[in-house]
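Exercise 7b. Backbone tokens:
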């Protein structure tokens, strides 16, 4: 045999022996681990009690399956491979094991400290909130500000805010509800707190926008349909609603009417006029097919029905602009029943009088005799 062939065989034999020794070492380590864990060889009952016979002594030790092996045999969750630490051989030295154990202990201590801190902060916050809502922050000073017709004493008494109440339990919404019912002209109340014991009630008043005449007195209503007064001597700067019949009216409550369609139609006419820059002083919705309105107490607008109301209001705006350029004090009636043309008739106007509706007047308006027509 040649020398180079001998050398090759020796090197192969050396590699095989190293692999065999490594494999044998791994098997021994695995057997030792199982023996230490008690997974494979355990004493049976007679041997544990010490009452076994010579026959039992010869009997082989029965293998059992421990809890660790049962967990290992369970099928892992779908899509995840469960790594078993039992199957891997630990080649770490004692120093490495001690270092890893110390690092794990430090992590556990750190987590325990963090949990304790979080728990302490939560408990402290709960205690602080409870004290703030019960024992601390008692109201000692109450003041009133804002433009209002009511005195500070009336506002404080109606608000229900008293000395000794908790500062944080007094809310703007609760105070607004109480004041709005007791003092109708209060539109909104804002609570301004000053820690530790002062409260300021800032009043914003509402104003009347609509009025309804009843028994020679006026019911005043704001834009949110709240009744402000029921026995007012004057209507003031409001739009007088004719044809709207209120039911039981009480200051501080919302308006209830007999026919809601008439009230909604009146508000629609007022809104359309405001969008066109026209300020109305009166709206008559007694007959929904003969709707009228009065502009600035001098010009009566006759719409007929409320169909094409926006277009009719635009025509009214054009006619009023032309008439005011000619003579600002001119009085009369603007017929807007036709969507294509508007007709003006000059005549003295009584804003509180009901509109005339007869055949002769309509024919005169259409023919244009003694009337001015505006496209």
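Sequence design result:
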């Amino acid at each position: 045999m040649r020398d180079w062939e001998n050398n090759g065989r020796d090197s192969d034999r050396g590699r095989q022996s190293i692999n065999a020794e490594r494999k044998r070492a791994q098997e021994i380590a695995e057997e030792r681990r199982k023996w230490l864990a008690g997974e494979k060889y355990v004493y049976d009952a007679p041997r544990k009690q010490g009452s076994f016979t010579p026959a039992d002594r010869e009997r082989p030790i029965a293998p059992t399956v421990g809890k660790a092996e049962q967990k290992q045999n369970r099928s892992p969750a779908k899509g995840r491979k469960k790594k078993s630490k039992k199957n891997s051989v630990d080649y770490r030295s004692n120093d490495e094991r001690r270092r890893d154990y110390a690092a794990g202990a430090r992590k556990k201590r750190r987590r325990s400290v963090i949990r304790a801190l979080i728990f302490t902060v939560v408990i402290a916050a709960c205690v602080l909130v409870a004290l703030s809502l019960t024992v601390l922050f008692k109201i000692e000073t109450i003041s009133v500000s804002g433009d209002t017709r009511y005195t500070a004493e009336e506002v404080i008494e109606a608000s229900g805010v008293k000395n000794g109440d908790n500062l944080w339990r007094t809310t703007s919404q609760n105070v607004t509800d109480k004041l709005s019912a007791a003092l109708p002209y209060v539109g909104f109340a804002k609570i301004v707190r000053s820690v530790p014991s002062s409260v300021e009630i800032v009043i914003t008043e509402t104003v009347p926008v609509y009025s309804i005449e009843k028994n020679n007195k006026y019911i005043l209503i704001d834009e949110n349909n709240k009744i402000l007064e029921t026995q007012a001597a004057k209507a003031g700067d409001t739009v007088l609603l004719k044809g709207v019949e209120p039911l039981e009216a009480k200051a501080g409550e919302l308006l209830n009417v007999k026919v809601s369609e008439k009230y909604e139609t009146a508000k629609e006419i007022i809104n359309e006029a405001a969008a066109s820059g026209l300020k109305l002083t009166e709206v008559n919705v007694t007959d929904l097919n003969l709707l009228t309105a009065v502009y600035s107490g001098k010009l009566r607008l006759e719409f007929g029905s409320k169909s094409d109301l926006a277009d009719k209001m635009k025509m009214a705006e054009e006619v009023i602009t032309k008439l005011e350029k000619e003579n600002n004090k001119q009085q009369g009636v603007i017929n807007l029943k036709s969507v294509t043309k508007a007709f003006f008739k000059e005549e003295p106007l009584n804003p509180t009088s009901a509109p005339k509706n007869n055949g002769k007047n309509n024919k005169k308006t259409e023919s244009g005799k003694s009337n001015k027509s505006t496209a």
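Instructor comment: Residues 248 and 256 are 7 Å apart (CA to CA). Residues 40-48, 57-65, 351-375 have pLDDT under 50 and may be disordered.
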